[in-house]
Specification:
Number of helices: 15
Low-confidence stretches: none
Distance between the termini: 53 Å
Mean pLDDT: 89
Helix content: 25-40%
Radius of gyration: 26 Å
Structural class: alpha+beta
Number of strands: 25
Strand order of the largest sheet: 10-9-8-11-13-12
Strand content: 15-25%
Number of domains: 4
Length: about 575
């Protein structure tokens, strides 16, 4: 139970945010998703609106359930928050297969011996190190507290001495900041070994599920981007403590962080205002690689630690996609390759004999299990596989647990199966001529997967997938046209990101997200953004390669591409184009 006092007409969602309590709010408090539910236990609040009524069942209304974003307390109220933002490690995707590379990180360390003081040697402690006079104050402070005579490690950044350590532990973090989830890996910079991994739901989710919602939050709230930065940096700091503790160290052994992320995530991490990303022509403040002191962002690592942000191609082809292209070695591919990163934002690159064209589409969060009536992330209890036999549904559940909802792959398989069994028409409309379809208490159609556990795919869910499918397929077809490539001429399809982990490739073609001729050419390459971040952490040559890729990849703006609107509309239909 929580007690809230009214203030200045703020709604319950806003009041809770001010107290650091985050509710699920994919629509950023616009009253469009119905996720921020609370139960009013006592006290008077504003009456329900028709907009709010649409998200509440009769039982919920009788039980005092309200949407926090549409409810204003009129006096002190006690509430039970039902839509708290939860997270778990399960389902957050770690690194993929990393190519073998020579180690050449920006941060290095060499063993040294600190000679004892004597009356015969009048040199200062720093002079005895024989590294010159251009030493940071932090290094001088570290030298002063080390024993007079001992073996130690001298740490360099870009060849310049920056720190002294009593032991040789030298670590870095590789980070993939996704719109929905964040993956973190702790690496040994001297061996390249991955020491530990962590993952969590992006805490910015409380301010909106997609990038546009978070951009609008910054535009509508003074200092909003600093709040987005704060919640993310605090959670990254927790992750750093957890990871280093697991190897018996503290975060001061971390000297560098390499980060991949879309442009909005990188701007938010650095605390750079987002307004220009939300207004035509959607211009980024920066595309280039950025290196900043970690302390300047509020990250408590080693005092000399730096954060390296992988460069972007454009406002909507960010460092995560450049990082993925680096990991996939697209710059050295001699065949025709389609690279897809399917998440809340759908980004893709078509590579043909060294020419690379990219585009970005608003895929939406449906394939990550979000904004879906029974949707959830890919974690234990999520339905990941669906097979229909005409009268019943066979479900494959992650962890063989009690089914709790559908993750993206399960949703897509359900729809693919529905199309194959003619339960879903080309238009997307559900038929009612099957034991597997019925209507809910409001007369809305749905596909029945497991009535005993309340698992359904609603007509609205299918529409969400159609929008996602239309965006991705039309983007692919536009790139094919740009490079004058027929679908049959694509040699490989590389699917990256969280979504592909649990996916049967046949579902991509069965639901019409990819042309059917590409079904046998699909392979899954894991979290390529994370893999690319590891490469950049371990090699300065890989950074230069990523920076060259960002300059080489061309960007196609779909909104101004001739004939795109008609192509998108056609791509909404199930059964191909």
């Amino acid at each position: 139970m929580l007690h809230i006092e009214p203030r200045a007409g703020l709604n319950i969602l806003e009041l809770l945010r001010e107290e650091g309590i985050l509710l699920e709010s994919p629509c950023n408090g616009k009253g469009l998703c119905g996720k921020c539910k609370v139960r009013i236990l006592s006290g008077t609040v504003s009456p329900r609106s028709a907009q709010e009524e649409a998200f509440l069942t009769p039982a919920e209304r009788a039980d005092g359930v309200r949407l926090a974003c549409l409810t204003v307390p009129l006096e002190g109220v006690d509430i039970d928050p039902l839509g708290l933002l939860h997270e778990s490690r399960g389902g957050v995707l770690g690194s993929g297969q990393r190519p073998d590379i020579p180690l050449a990180p920006a941060v290095t360390a060499e063993p040294i011996h600190l000679a004892p003081a004597s009356f015969e040697d009048h040199r200062s402690m720093c002079a005895a190190l024989e590294v010159g006079n251009d030493l940071p104050l932090s290094l001088m402070r570290e030298r002063a507290v080390l024993d007079e005579a001992q073996d130690a490690w001298l740490v360099h950044y870009g060849g310049a001495p920056v720190a002294l350590r009593a032991d040789g532990t030298l670590c870095g973090l590789a980070v993939d900041i996704g719109t929905t989830t964040v993956a973190v890996a702790l690496l040994d910079l001297q061996t390249g070994k991955r020491l530990a991994e962590d993952g969590f739901v992006n805490p910015q989710k409380a301010f909106g599920l997609d990038v546009l919602s978070r951009i609008h939050y910054d535009m509508e709230h003074p200092g909003g981007v600093l709040e987005l930065q704060r919640v993310l940096v605090e959670r990254l700091g927790e992750s750093a403590r957890t990871l280093t503790s697991s190897i018996g160290q503290s975060p001061d052994c971390i000297f560098e962080v390499a980060v991949g992320g879309n442009s909005t995530m990188l701007h938010a991490l650095l605390g750079v205002p987002l307004a220009s990303l939300g207004q035509a022509p959607y211009r980024s403040v920066f595309h280039h690689a950025v290196t900043v002191p970690a302390a300047e962002l509020g990250l408590t690592l080693h005092p000399q630690a730096r954060v390296y942000c992988i460069p972007s191609v454009s406002s909507y082809i960010g460092g995560d996609i450049v990082s993925g292209a680096l990991a996939a070695r697209l710059d050295e591919a001699e065949d025709t390759v389609l690279f897809l990163d399917i998440g809340t934002n759908g980004e893709m690159i078509l590579s043909k004999h060294g020419s690379m064209y990219s585009c970005s589409c608003a895929a939406g969060p449906a394939l990550e299990g979000m904004n879906i009536s029974c949707g959830m992330r890919a974690e234990p209890g999520a339905v990941e596989h669906v097979r229909l036999d005409g009268e019943r549904a066979e479900l494959g559940i992650i962890g063989d647990a009690t089914p709790r909802g559908l993750c993206g792959s399960g949703l897509l398989e359900a729809i693919s199966q529905g199309v194959a069994h003619k339960l879903i028409a080309k238009s997307g409309r559900l038929t009612l001529d099957s034991p597997l379809t019925d209507t809910d208490e409001n007369g809305k159609r749905r596909l029945v997967l497991d009535a005993s556990h309340g698992l359904y795919v609603t007509q609205a869910d299918i529409r969400q997938v159609q929008l996602c499918k239309g965006a991705i397929l039309s983007g692919i077809l536009t790139l094919l046209k740009e490079l004058k490539v027929e679908p049959e001429e694509v040699d490989r399809v590389l699917v990256a990101g969280q979504f592909g982990k649990h996916l049967d490739p046949a579902s991509l073609t069965g639901a019409g997200i990819l042309p059917s001729c590409l079904g046998e050419k699909i392979s899954y390459i894991g979290n390529s953004s994370m893999t690319g971040a590891e490469l950049c952490l371990l090699s300065q040559a890989e950074r230069r390669r990523a920076e060259a890729l960002a300059q080489t990849i061309s960007y196609v703006e779909l909104s101004v591409s001739e004939g795109y609107e008609a192509l998108f509309t056609k791509s909404l239909q199930f059964g191909g184009v």
